[in-house]
Amino acid sequence: MNSSSHSTKSTEASAASHKPGSGALERLAWAGAIVGGVSLAAALASDPHRAWSALLVHNFYFLSIALMAVAFIAAHAMVRAGWLAVLRRVAESMAGYLIPGAVLMIASLAGARSLYIWADPEIVAADVLLIHKSAYLNLPAFAVRMIVILLVWIGFARALAAAHRARDAAQDRDEKGVAAPWDPSHRVVRVSAAFLVACIATYCLAAADWMLSLEPHWVSTLFPWYAMSSGFAAALAVLTLLAIALRRRGDLPELRPDHLHDLGKYLFAFSIFWAYLFYSQFMLIWYANIPEESAYFDLRGGPWFTLYAINLAINFALPFALVPRAMKRREGLMIFISLAIVLGHWLDFYLMAMPSGFDTPPLGWIEIGTGIGVASIFYLAWLRALRREAVVSAGDPYLAESLEHHVG
Question: Which residues have CB under 8 Å from 154's CB, separation 6+?
Answer without folding.
Answer: 98, 99, 102
